[in-house]
Predict the structure.
Amino acid sequence: MSTDGGGYLLIGHMNNTVTWSVPSSNKTVEPFGHPHWSSEFGDVSVLDFRIQIASDEDFENTKAHWAFRFKNKRLLKNLMILDQGGCPYNFPGVGDISYVKDLMTEEIVSRDFSCSKFGPYSHPIAKIGWTMMNLCLEKPCTSGFAYHHLYPIQVDFSGGFSFAIVTNSSKSSNGATAFFGCDKGKCCACYGPSGGTNVYCLKECQSINGGTITKHASAWFWVRLNPPRKVWEKCMEYESEEENGDSAWYKLVGDRNIPVKVSTRNPTPVL
C-alpha cells in the first residue's frame, strides 16, 4: 500500500458504503475499529485529502486509492465548498484541487479535475448534507450528515467521494474513475482495473466500460498537513543487485516514486 511519502492522519473509516449514517466523535479513528469520522481536526489546516477503497476490511484488497492536493490549505471543517474552487453553485463538494494522484500507480493523473461533487445543494441554514458533513468534522454528531439536526429524520440521500481522470478537453465529464458513497439513495463502491484511466462509474451506482459495482466495501479517509520531506533534494542514482546476481543502476526521476533502470550511469552517483 502506497502512502505517498507518509505523514497522513486517519480521520474517517467506514466498513460499508452507506455514508449518510456514519457518526463523528472525538475518539481516535482506528483502521479496523468502529466506523466513524473524527471531530478532533476541524480547526486544522490540511493540504492533502486521501481516499482509500478496499473490497473488505483489508488494505491488501485495496481497489482504488487516490489523493487530492489542494491549491490552498484550508481548515478541515471547510472540506466541502460551494460555488468556488471549481464546485458549482448547485453541487457542493471537495474542490480547489491542484491535482489528483493515483496511489495505485503513484502518478499524478489529472491537473484538471476541479471538484469531487458530494451531493446536491441544500441551504447552509438547514444543516444537512454538505453543511452537516463540515459540522461533523468540527464537533461530534451522533447521526451522521443526512439527518435533521433536531429530529431523527433522514432528509438527505446522497453523499459521496470520487475522482475522474480528465483533461482540458474533457472537463465536463459526467462520470468518475472511482466512487464511494451514495447518490439519490443508492450506495456503492465503484472502480475500474488497477491503473485504469477511463470513466467506470455513472450516476446512481451504475457502471460503464467494465467498471465494478459493489455494495460491500470499506473506505478510509486521510489528511496531511504538509508535503512530505524528501531525504534527497536532487535526482538520486543507486546500484542494486538483480535476481541473477548482476548489478544494475536505477534512478528516481520527476513525480514518480518508482525507480527507473538506466542503461548507462554517471561516473559519480548523483545524490
In short: The chain has a mean pLDDT of 89. Helices lie at 130-136.
